[in-house]
Every structure is written in C-alpha cells, then in structure tokens.
Amino acid sequence: MAGGRIGGSPHFSLLHDFCHGLLPNKLAMTPPLGGATSARHSTITLRKMRRITLSLTAAAVSLAAVPQALGAQESVAGLLNEAQAAYKRGNERRARSLADQAIKLDPQQATGYLLRGAIYERSQEHALALADYDEAIRLRPEQAPAYNRRGGVRFKLDRIEDSLRDFDKAIELDPRQEPHHWQRGISYYYAGLYEKGRRQFASHQTVNPDDVENAVWHYLCVARLGGAREARGSILRIDGDSRVPMMQIYRLFRGDGTIAGVLEAARAGSPSPQILNQQLFYAHLYIGLYHEANGKAKAARKNIVQAVDHQVGHYMWHVARVHAQRPRGDNSRP
Predict the structure, then answer these.
(1) Burial, 100: exposed, middle or buried (Cβ in 10 Å; 0-12, 13-18, 19+)?
(2) How many Å separate Cα 169 from the centre of its chain?
(3) 153, 244, 249, 304: least buried by Cβ within 10 Å?
(4) 277-321: pLDDT as tens digits
(5) Beta carbons of 307 and 320 less than 8 angstroms apart
(6) C-alpha span between 170 and 149 (Å, rounded)
C-alpha cells in the first residue's frame, strides 16, 4: 500500500489506544445502592473484568494478524509484478524465481500458477506448464484465460481433443472470444472437425479481415470437405497482409501464384537473419500445407519439416512441430 506501513508499530499503537480507551468506561466499578463496596460486588466486578480482558485479548490477537496477512498479500503482488516484468524482458530465470517465491508465500493464489505456467511454456517445459495451469484452474475455475493457456499447451502436447475442451470452456465463460479464437479453428482441423473449423475461420474473418493465414486455414478445411477446387472457389477475400511472404502465399492458394514466387519473396532484399528465418518458416509451412491440400503427402512432409527447422517464437511453430511429429497419413488426404 503506497505511503503506508503494514505490520509495523502503528498497529500496536492502535491496539494500545483501542484497549485503554475502552477499559476505563467498561470496567469502572460502581458502588452498590447502599454506598459501600461489598465483597460480593467486588467479586462480580472482577469476574466481568476477566471476561472483558479475555475478549479484548482475543480481539488484539485477531487484529495483530491483519497486518501480517495484508503484508503477505502485498508481498505476493509485488513478486508477481516483478516476475511479469522479468518475463516480458525475456529473463525467464529471474521470472521463474520470483514466481516460485510468490507461490511459496501464497499457494492459494491462482495468478502465481498462471504466470509460472506461462514461463514454463515459453521455455517449452510443457508438462510443467500444464501442471501449473491445472492448479490455477482448480483454484479459480471461472477464469477464461487459464483455460485458453491450458488449451494452448495441450495442443503443443498433441492432445488435440483436450485442447478443444479447454477452448470451448474459455468461450463459454467469455463468449466475446468466439470470433477471435483462431486457435480453436486449428484444433478443429487436427481433430478432423473440418466443418466446425471452416465456420470458426469464417467467423474470424469478421474481426480480422486481412489475415492470409486465416484464409488459408479456411481453405484447408474446405479442401478436406470438398477438395482443392472447391476450396479455391470459396477462398476468403484478402486485400492486403503486409507480412512477407503472405500475399504470395495467398496467391498460391488462390490459384494464380507459384511455390517459387513464395520462396523468392521470402528471400528478397536483405532481411536480417532473424527476419529471413521467420519468413522462410512461414513460406515452408504454407507450401507444405498447400501440398497436403493437393494430396502430395511426401512434398508436404518435406516442407513442414523444413519449417520446423526455422524455429520461431510463435504458436504457429508449434503447429508445424505437432504436424511433423504426427504419424504419416494423419494430416494428409488419401
């Protein structure tokens, strides 16, 4: 609490004032009607004094616990804020240490587990992340973000149906998420629920109209349902995605582009090694998925594996990794 002191001497001063301000009025011995203080009256008064003293002692103990509890809560909040700042800076070791301390101080605080789970997830310790998300949900089962995080890590563990259950629960708790939830669309695709996937990506188009990747995943679902020709004929309209080489990828799926054009765009100019790596990742991922939609399983697998070799820090890299690790035949048309 800014500007305040919790757990220090001011609270003992408050207790002192509380006790001594009440004792004189409550415990003043009143003589009996006769004017003399009898032994019986003194005994009764002393008993009352003992009862009141015990009550005040109990109250003092309870109040003394308040600053300790508030101090612990403030300490946990401070640790979690520092952990989140370290996480954003990319200092995962520091972030994890701070989150560990917060959880030790207050193991009933769901936010600590949610944050530490995200730290584990970034370092690809998905089993540990899952355990923390499980605990966060146990403590706060009404929080949609926890289900989204757990659904994502379950997808990364190739637990596709479980990821869908979590995404569905997140949307049940916060229906506003539904059109934004492209991750659920991808899980639908890998679960073989292509009509649901098609509808999810069509819905996402209403809130993200210039995303080539969304149009491609819509295409992939339609291709599974009715073939590549039907998918080309119903491809979602994209007017401009500034990411390289997204528009070349879009033209490839639309039918008026080439694989060579996608790769040339990804390598064009003088991008930094990091940017080139990212552009080649997306190029090979979507070339692989294009081959898959057209029944070319060998070429599809070759490009997906190449995409995995160009590791990027994004959910889509895990999509490529999960795809590549699945048994052959699970992701391609017969």
Answers:
(1) middle
(2) 14
(3) 244
(4) 999 999 999 999 999 999 999 999 999 999 999 999 999 999 999
(5) yes
(6) 10
Give, as one character, the DSSP assignment of residue 6.
Answer: -
Nearest by Cα to 227 from 194, 269, 199, 202:
194
Vertex 228: Cα angle to 255 and 186 (nearest 5)? 105
Record the tokens describing residue 13, joined without a space.
């001063």
Specify the pTM: 0.77
Helix 273-293 to helix 315-325 angle (10° resolution) is: 50
Beta strand extents in 176-236 (DSSP E only): none
pLDDT at 327: 83
H or E segment at 229? helix 228-233
Distance CA 117, CA 55 (A): 45
> Residue 232 phi/psi, 5° resolution?
-65, -40
Nearest-angstrom CA–CA distance, 197 and 199: 5
